[in-house]
Amino acid sequence: MKKHNFSAGPSILPQEVFEKASQAVLDFDNTGLSLIEISHRSKEFVAVYDKAVALVKELLNVPETHEVLFLQGGASMQFLMTAINLMKNEGGKAAYVDTGAWSSKAIKEAKLFGQVDVVASSEDTNYNYIPKGYSIPTDADYVHITSNNTIFGTQFKEFPTTEVPLVADMSSDIFSKPVDVSKFGIIYAGAQKNLGPAGATLVIVKKDLLGNTGRTIPSMLDYQIHIKGESMFNTPPVFAIYVSMLNLEYMKAQGGLKAVEKHNEEKAAMLYNEIDNNPSFVNSVAKEDRSLMNVVFLLKDESKDAEFLAACAEAGISNVKGHRSVGGFRASIYNAMPKESVQALIDVMKKF
Ligand code: PMP
């Protein structure tokens, strides 16, 4: 029996995508070859790549000023790539908003390349809100945010307005709703939540921000080199890009990101409603900052945690244990999570 998978990532994708991907591994488009044994420079794969890029541009309405790349190394590689590509060699300075573990890791890497000003942080309350009302120094090379905090269950509902280039780690909420890409200098995301399998990293970068640091950037870390090579400076993650392309096609067929957003809002409302009305559970995230992707909650009586997890397992619900730094439970309800699965979890909570 297929489980209700609430994993934070790698995570659920549509069943239809899994089926088409499986078929392509056996025989890609009746070529008599597997998708994963053909050259990345073959016309068949180049067509896949071009389609994936075109769908990203279409779904997110990416302006001409920005380039779309599929790289490797995960979002973690982008922690340093964003910094090395944007921070000036002489007197470089960047502003960071610290909203949890992933922001902190981005900050650690950026410090290798210049001065980092943490302009706001919600560390004081174990990251259960999104800081607001801070100012961003106008002489910063860029400001970095983590749009959705996978571990702590918080999400930016509005992005900072600033003249400084805005860089966002959107690993765990990309494609969950429309965003105005023109407002961002760089958006990056590891694929393994709403996009595709682990192994590909989506980067959307504003071209005129590049080439201005005065640094020597190693080739593999240089966005300009990847742009010139159309993500094929080295062998790209062909399987991950193919599955991402299938999932982008699926999102388009659902009616695009407006429709995806509506579905996500409805699912999150169902679950938060249960948490708020069920006397056994609590969510301690500031209401206006609650993530629509990662719903964290605690049992008021923590001694019953194991019992609740056992009840979930009994109902075919997997991966709801919370991250060790928060405790309790986390239900990741990415795009592909059906309402029926959310309802299955709610049913267990009600019975409990
Ligand atoms: N940023 C966020 C918001 C994440 O959720 C994750 C992974 N869960 C990462 C960064 C790290 O991504 P990767 O493992 O692809 O390097």
From TrEMBL:
<keyword id="KW-0663">Pyridoxal phosphate</keyword>
<keyword id="KW-0963">Cytoplasm</keyword>
<feature type="binding site">
    <location>
        <position position="150"/>
    </location>
    <ligand>
        <name>pyridoxal 5'-phosphate</name>
    </ligand>
</feature>
<keyword id="KW-0718">Serine biosynthesis</keyword>
<keyword id="KW-0032">Aminotransferase</keyword>
<comment type="function">
    <text>Catalyzes the reversible conversion of 3-phosphohydroxypyruvate to phosphoserine and of 3-hydroxy-2-oxo-4-phosphonooxybutanoate to phosphohydroxythreonine.</text>
</comment>
<feature type="domain" description="Aminotransferase class V">
    <location>
        <begin position="5"/>
        <end position="345"/>
    </location>
</feature>
<feature type="binding site">
    <location>
        <begin position="234"/>
        <end position="235"/>
    </location>
    <ligand>
        <name>pyridoxal 5'-phosphate</name>
    </ligand>
</feature>
<dbReference type="InterPro" id="IPR015421">
    <property type="entry name" value="PyrdxlP-dep_Trfase_major"/>
</dbReference>
<protein>
    <recommendedName>
        <fullName>Phosphoserine aminotransferase</fullName>
        <ecNumber>2.6.1.52</ecNumber>
    </recommendedName>
</protein>
<comment type="subunit">
    <text>Homodimer.</text>
</comment>
<comment type="pathway">
    <text>Amino-acid biosynthesis; L-serine biosynthesis; L-serine from 3-phospho-D-glycerate: step 2/3.</text>
</comment>
<feature type="binding site">
    <location>
        <begin position="75"/>
        <end position="76"/>
    </location>
    <ligand>
        <name>pyridoxal 5'-phosphate</name>
    </ligand>
</feature>
<dbReference type="Pfam" id="PF00266">
    <property type="entry name" value="Aminotran_5"/>
</dbReference>
<dbReference type="InterPro" id="IPR015422">
    <property type="entry name" value="PyrdxlP-dep_Trfase_small"/>
</dbReference>
<dbReference type="GO" id="GO:0004648">
    <property type="term" value="F:O-phospho-L-serine:2-oxoglutarate aminotransferase activity"/>
</dbReference>
<dbReference type="InterPro" id="IPR015424">
    <property type="entry name" value="PyrdxlP-dep_Trfase"/>
</dbReference>
<feature type="binding site">
    <location>
        <position position="169"/>
    </location>
    <ligand>
        <name>pyridoxal 5'-phosphate</name>
    </ligand>
</feature>
<keyword id="KW-0664">Pyridoxine biosynthesis</keyword>
<feature type="binding site">
    <location>
        <position position="41"/>
    </location>
    <ligand>
        <name>L-glutamate</name>
    </ligand>
</feature>
<feature type="binding site">
    <location>
        <position position="102"/>
    </location>
    <ligand>
        <name>pyridoxal 5'-phosphate</name>
    </ligand>
</feature>
<dbReference type="InterPro" id="IPR000192">
    <property type="entry name" value="Aminotrans_V_dom"/>
</dbReference>
<feature type="modified residue" description="N6-(pyridoxal phosphate)lysine">
    <location>
        <position position="193"/>
    </location>
</feature>
<dbReference type="InterPro" id="IPR022278">
    <property type="entry name" value="Pser_aminoTfrase"/>
</dbReference>
<comment type="pathway">
    <text>Cofactor biosynthesis; pyridoxine 5'-phosphate biosynthesis; pyridoxine 5'-phosphate from D-erythrose 4-phosphate: step 3/5.</text>
</comment>
<feature type="binding site">
    <location>
        <position position="192"/>
    </location>
    <ligand>
        <name>pyridoxal 5'-phosphate</name>
    </ligand>
</feature>
<keyword id="KW-0028">Amino-acid biosynthesis</keyword>
<keyword id="KW-0808">Transferase</keyword>
<comment type="similarity">
    <text>Belongs to the class-V pyridoxal-phosphate-dependent aminotransferase family. SerC subfamily.</text>
</comment>
<dbReference type="InterPro" id="IPR020578">
    <property type="entry name" value="Aminotrans_V_PyrdxlP_BS"/>
</dbReference>
